[in-house]
Amino acid sequence: MKTTPFLYSLLLMVMAVCCQTNETNLDLNLDFEQIKEQKPVKWNNFGSHDYLVSLDSISKKRGKYAAVIEYEKGESDFKALSLTLPHNYEGSKITLSGYIKTENVTDGYAGLWMRIDPSIAFDNMYQQGVKGTTDWQKYEITLNMIPDETKLIVVGGMLTGKGKMWLDDLKITIDGKDISKLKPYEQKLLPAEQDREFDLGSKILIPDPDENQIVNLELLGKIWGFLKYHHPEVGKGNYNWDYELFRMLPGYIAVTDHAQRDKVLLEWIKKYGKVPEEKTNKKVTFDAYIKPDISWIDASDMNAELKEMLHHIYSNRYQGHHFYIRMALGVGNPVFRHEKAYANPSYPDSAFRLLSLYKYWNMVYYFFPNTYITDKDWNSVLKEYIPLFIQAKDELEYELATVQLIGEVNDTHANLWNGADKIYQWKGIYYPPFHTRFIEGKLVVTDYYNSELEETAGLKIGDVITHINGKTIEDLIKNIKKYYPASNEAARLRDISVDILRSNDQTIRLQYIASGQSKQKDLKLYPRNDLKIFHWYKNSTDKSYKLLDENIGYITLATIKDEDIPAIKDTFNKTKGIIIDIRNYPATFVPFSLGSYFVSAPSPFVKFTTGNSINPGEFVFTPPIEIQPADKTYQGKLVVLVNELTQSQAEYTSMAFRAGRNTTIIGSTTAGADGNVSSIMLPGGLQTMISGIGVYYPDGTPTQRVGIVPDIVVEPTIKGIRNKKDELLEKAIEIINKQ
To answer: Among candidates 277, 265, 190, which has minimal Cα distance to 234?
Structure first.
């Protein structure tokens, strides 16, 4: 779900546009008085070329000059002024204030903006931007700071849409103190960051474990993760917890009985000192939706002293700024800190592979909001995967074991998004000339990437593929489905359909049904770069809205822009109905800007569950989020189209439109993966992520795995595909025309 306001991704590019300077002079030219070649010194600008950036010596708040951004011509977009601060600073809150004046600002707004990277905090006055014509007025925005994570702080002013803005007399304060009076933050490396002993490998060989050793390694994985997120010395960053595992592992895998095992564990934990009694209030929510589960401690066969020690650590767990975990400011999804990728080698040794399993299992156990709805009890997963990770004989087997583990969380957001080079090759480097989808449970040709290849390929749109190289589609799916993580079968089959015809041979043998007859064909495959491949749906540059039959509005979110919304409301105001197509990923975040057009009163549409870094494993509900009605709201019918391509932000947007007073959602099961994502790095340079917050309707109905349930189920048919019909669109028109 994309909850970051408009221009988030574009403003991220400011790191490249406005690189960090070595400037040490704290005269930041916040009043634009220092100029060179009619431009303010130290300032940059970026965005559309259809805007003019200048200085005004007549209309200014104070001094000689004010900065000006003015739309000139062409399609309105945005322009921003930016100033990169020369240093990072100590503090908890940073405030940017300044004066803004506007003239005829439409189709957007004027405002201040500020960003702390990497992805720590951001604000661009999206919700309270200045519109119309206004005289000089002071505005301010404030962000929470995390000095030891901050790499870059950028501030500025911006204009989106049309019109003109003036900017002057800026000021930056940190915790109420002027930035010019503050010393730069001097970041000191913590002991955990200075520990480099195993950077070149663990040099530990773990033998293939027997059943007793697997049980012992399972217990170690749970204790290691428990201490990582609860022990004060680990939380403070006094130990590199990855490498502490390697230091104790040789002695641990050599134990021969439970008594010896427990002795090794006790001595290991005691090494980090006695955990003092915590007298401050531990953040616990007694009516939490999900409460921490540490029942494995008492359920284990550890001795009483070891159990008592772990319970003591839990009762006196770390409550400060944690070295390894924090919850994202303003959202609440987990941010896994100081997790190295250990990218070299790409096939890590057996101890690093075990570390990879321990990391992922514990991240999910304590900070994934949806473990309670996974197909498999997450408590059983760790033991099952220990031999798979230890015995993975090469890079491919390690990648396959990892993606199979990831699949156990049943989350379409979760996959191997980077580092899966061997899996990519394993799937095949040659591609079919056409796109396929599962329609009515069959693998159907739905489009050609390159139309000129249709005659050579021989298959027609609507043909059904039944066998590949003599194997049935059903058997192929059974063999590979465990390597396709997904929230539900609709999303899994969506992803399999993209890959199932790939091969490392340039020709594959197909059996298929065309016009009711069974046929065979040797199909030529092509390198990816030879094809105009689209993943799920074709990208388009077409306008996002149009009239159908002169009385029905059609909107596709695939190409929608913020500036389209006023025109959409004006164009479709008198229509009988509007169709919004979300069988795609929205190009712009519109739940509030467009959703407000369809509600007649404040309408709650979503609430979340968020985790707690001070009480890992706890998840609590946030208050519901409301959509406020626009000044003028739509009176006709709204029909929203969804299917398995509707995922994440698209699902969140569908929830917002469902809050409309006259909305009908039609289509089929969506991908069932909503909520801000949290990135996870694993040894070997592997990168994955999880849905970091739970997403629910205001009444508590979940959306994870379930997706957006249509009011009317409408699925495409093979006959419709063959005749190139859009059956969902036809049904939407029928619903609107029906009295």
So the answer is: 190
Joined together, the tokens standing for residue 620 give: 């609590």
Q: How many CB atoms lie within 10 A of CB 739?
A: 2
Interval 529-543: pLDDT, tens:
999 999 888 888 889
Confidence at residue 26, expressed as pLDDT on a 0 to 100 scale = 65
Q: Tokens for 684, please give them.
A: 């070997």
C-alpha to C-alpha distance for 98 and 101, rounded to whole angstroms:
10
Residue 549: predicted pLDDT: 86
* Per-residue model confidence (pLDDT) at position 280: 66
Look up tokens 């994309």; give the residue.
2
Closest among 72, 50, 87, 69 to 157, alpha carbons compared: 69
pLDDT in tens, 3-46: 333 343 444 444 333 333 333 346 899 999 999 988 899 999 99
Q: Which residues sit opposite 638 in a β-bridge? A: 578, 663
- Asked whether the beta carbons of 681 and 355 are under 8 A apart, the reply is no
For strand 712-713 and strand 663-667, is the pairing parallel, antiparallel, or unpaired? parallel
The whole-model pTM stands at 0.86
pLDDT < 50: residue spans in the chain: 1-25
Collapse the DSSP code of 474 into the 3-class scheme (helix H, G, I; strand E, B; otherwise coil) and give the result.
Answer: helix
The secondary element (H helix, E strand) that includes residue 70 is strand 66-71
Query: Strands 677-682, 552-556: parallel, antiparallel or unpaired by DSSP?
Result: unpaired
What pLDDT is stored for residue 396 in this prediction? 98
- How far lies 53's CA from each of 46, 138, 161, 446, in Å? 10, 21, 15, 48
Cβ neighbours of residue 379 closer than 8 Å, sequence gap 6 or more: 296
Give 636's DSSP letter: S
**Quick one: CA dihedral 33, 39, 43, 48, positive or negative?**
positive
Q: How far apart are CA 636 and CA 623, in angstroms?
A: 30
- Name the DSSP letter for residue 483: G
